[in-house]
Design brief:
mainly alpha, Farnesyl Diphosphate Synthase, homodimer, 306 residues, 2 strands, two-stranded antiparallel ribbon
């Protein structure tokens, strides 16, 4: 679908420190999002204001960073992956807006700011989420129908929405170390987190015109990093202080939530995250030196303290 | 994007009676939807059951019928437009599921059956709508990135979601014959109804590999039919009996809703619908005999009594 628009250079650019890389990703993602989103005063203004409120809310832009890292790993120019960086963040943002609704997690604050339905109203938040999803697909269409299908599968009933549904279905069910709980936990984490993170890596590869082998390697990397990210999140919730976390710690346990720590215990959760980090790094082998930035990103995701 | 896959015949098939055409459209749309939707027992089963509950709820499949009519008018084979028939109905269904939510129109029944959040629960209905939207884009991706962009624009913040937002914003505002009310009414109707009906016609043309002139003609036809459809709806609500309508008539007026009848009066609304029908028929001129089925469909849409 995409013409091969790679730069003539044959080696990926050298890795830079993770914080510098993440800053670059934030800058590029924000520029791509600014370009994709209608102006706040364009009709219908209230809807566009609600969409912008949720998109420009201080997010870390981890998914766009993985798009960028995967694109660079496949020797693609940054400009090629701008639509994918914007699209994955638009889709991720809509899931947060809907998850925060009273009928779902009923959260009033996200990163210290009022959630969309608090800053506006519930109906506007439902519609803003709906419109953000449509805009994600309009934006990713610039990369061709293959990219649309990849995003739609990750964002659909067998991806992120399915994981959220399973999470809902699990509410109130007993949490133990049984096989049933372990299987359910894996389905939730694969759906809610790993599907979108693997999708980010795949879209980065696709933007760069990667070979099938490179693309498959980046999907495997993304699945491992996605699961490791979620486990690290569970560990942080169980161990970090409120000051470090920026939210109330221990909330998962208090709510009887199905987490890695609840099912496997803290030590096993930590070792599983490290094992997944090794899997992720191993998956990058076909990319050679090009994978170095993603190796550093995987280490960051597992080791982060907030 | 699409190869030219037209049948070698050079004339569109002759028009058939509207009721026979609509029956064919229902059969073809239901088959395409059955094919697009995951099985009800596939993970996550509750979500897939909610999606199927809302999709297979006795809808008239008017939008897929317009896809089919437009495809046939451009001498395209029926099989070419199956993805577009399914996608437009999946997107339309998600808007109904979300519109029925307590925070929006708060409807318990649709066509005499429990709405999604009544048959399941509110969180599941939000997620089922979200997943139906993703599935619409996954399905339409089979027709190429151009079709995705067409559907995303019609289904986005400046299309159907924008119309719904303007409808919300209008709640409680005075309804009169002022220019402001008329402009707002047009924005609501263009967004909520005409955008998706024009999109159905454009996707039908695109599926058939239509020429730019044919495609533009069908968009103009769809915009006029879409507005006529909405005005006919407003007239029906104000005039028909409950038995004919299958729902409580006069509900719009009782709720102080901004409708064509409220702003322009019954006679002017009727004449405006007929004027739009003439516009729609005139727009079909470039299609010659191929447009006959769509002429009959426009007449049906304006003249229907339920």
């Amino acid at each position: 679908m995409l013409p091969d628009r790679r730069e003539p250079r044959i080696r990926a650019r050298p890795a830079i420190p993770v914080d510098a890389f993440l800053s670059e990703a934030v800058r590029l993602a924000d520029a791509a999002l600014e370009c994709a989103l209608p102006r706040a005063d364009a009709w219908p203004a209230r809807l566009h204001q609600a969409m912008r409120h949720s998109v420009f809310a201080g997010g870390k832009r981890l998914r766009p960073a993985l798009v960028l890292g995967a694109c660079r790993a496949c020797v693609g120019d940054d400009v090629l992956c701008a639509p994918a960086m914007a699209a994955i963040e638009l889709l991720h943002t809509y899931t947060l807006v809907h998850d925060d609704l009273p009928a779902m997690d009923d959260d009033d604050l996200r990163r210290g700011r009022p959630t969309c339905h608090k800053a506006f109203d519930e109906a506007t938040a439902i519609l803003a989420g709906d419109a953000l999803q449509a805009l994600a697909f309009e934006t990713v269409a610039a990369l061709g129908a293959d990219a649309v299908a990849v995003l739609a599968r990750a964002g659909g009933s067998r991806g992120v929405v399915g994981g959220q549904q399973e999470d809902l279905d699990a509410e109130g069910a007993p949490v133990d170390a049984s096989d049933a709980c372990r299987a359910r936990l894996e389905r939730i984490h694969r759906g809610k987190t790993a599907a979108m993170i693997a999708c980010a890596c795949e879209l980065g590869a696709l933007s760069a015109g990667a070979s099938p082998a490179e693309r498959a390697a980046l999907v495997r990397y993304g699945e491992a990093v996605g699961l490791a990210f979620q486990i690290a999140d569970d560990v942080l919730d169980a161990t970090a202080s409120a000051a470090v976390l920026g939210k109330t710690p221990g909330k998962d346990a208090a709510q009887g939530k199905l987490t890695y720590v609840a099912v496997y215990g803290l030590e096993r959760a930590r070792s599983e995250a490290l094992r997944l980090e090794r899997d992720a790094v191993a998956a990058l082998a076909p990319l050679g030196d090009g994978g170095e930035q993603l190796v550093a990103l995987a280490h960051f995701v597992v080791g982060r303290d907030h």
